[in-house]
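RECORD TYPE: inverse folding
INPUT: structure tokens
STRUCTURE:
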């Protein structure tokens, strides 16, 4: 697919798989990806649970980026159960998903923690896929734009407060909460409308040049069946994929569509 920005196809494994499953996944996936024509025209990433990262790194043989799903904003300290950016970097991980709606929903993450996490990532030159998205209630009551704006405001504040703004380290993922894991993807029109809005907010914050460079992924029930329609949209620069990233064949099919 000829696009202005390089497509990023990102799997989000959430709290799934054991080490043996991870080995089996990459044993099947890596040869397929390696043989994919034009594979260099796309970026491929997996956001893995921490205990699987070492196995994923070894078995993926540098063909994809292995990322984490979360991190704490402090570099170290008394935060039982958390993991810091320096720990991840020490482990060869330079990217994380951040602010996923499941973190917001079940672990009380807020726009304020998002601001702190973006600030920490930028200061450490750590790459993020920062998630935004509205709930069904918010969409039904016409609050989508307002909710996205508040989430973006926190992300932008964190970036602006950092000593070393590095916008090339930030990808935004638009994931309508009602589309995650439900089998009910947003329509291309719904997704494009929000993606365009995100780019316009970025243009206001950082200028039109940076907005043109920003990659905005769509996430929420992406499958091989709807990937062509979504990824062929000029404003959709890739996908964040949960369910369909657990099966090597489904995920590979989406990579194939992106690289076609
Ligand atoms: P899904 O999850 O593809 O299973 O809807 C997407 C996500 O949560 O990132």
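DESIGNED SEQUENCE:
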């Amino acid at each position: 697919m000829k696009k202005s920005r390089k497509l990023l196809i990102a799997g989000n494994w959430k709290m799934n798989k054991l080490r043996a499953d991870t080995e089996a996944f990459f044993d099947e996936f890596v040869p397929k990806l390696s043989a994919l024509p034009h594979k260099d025209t796309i970026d491929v990433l997996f956001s893995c649970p921490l205990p699987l990262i070492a196995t994923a790194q070894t078995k993926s043989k540098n063909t994809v980026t292995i990322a984490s799903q979360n991190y704490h904003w402090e570099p170290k300290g008394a935060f039982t159960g958390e993991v810091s950016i320096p720990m991840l970097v020490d482990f060869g991980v330079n990217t994380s998903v951040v602010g996923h709606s499941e973190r917001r929903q079940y672990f009380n993450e807020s726009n304020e923690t998002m601001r702190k996490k973006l600030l920490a990532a930028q200061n450490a030159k750590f790459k993020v896929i920062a998630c935004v998205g509205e709930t069904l209630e918010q969409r039904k009551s016409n609050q989508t734009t307002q909710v996205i704006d508040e989430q973006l405001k926190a992300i932008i504040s964190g970036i602006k407060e950092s000593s070393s703004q590095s916008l090339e380290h930030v990808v935004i993922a638009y994931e309508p909460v009602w589309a995650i894991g439900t089998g009910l993807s947003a329509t291309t029109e719904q997704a494009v409308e929000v993606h365009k809005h995100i780019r316009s907010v970025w243009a206001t914050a950082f200028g039109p040049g940076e907005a043109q460079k920003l990659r905005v992924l769509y996430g929420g029930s992406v499958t091989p069946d709807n990937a062509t329609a979504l990824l062929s949209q000029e404003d959709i620069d890739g996908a964040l994929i949960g369910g369909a990233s657990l099966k090597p064949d489904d995920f590979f099919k989406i990579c194939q569509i992106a690289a076609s």
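NOTES: The chain has a mean pLDDT of 97.
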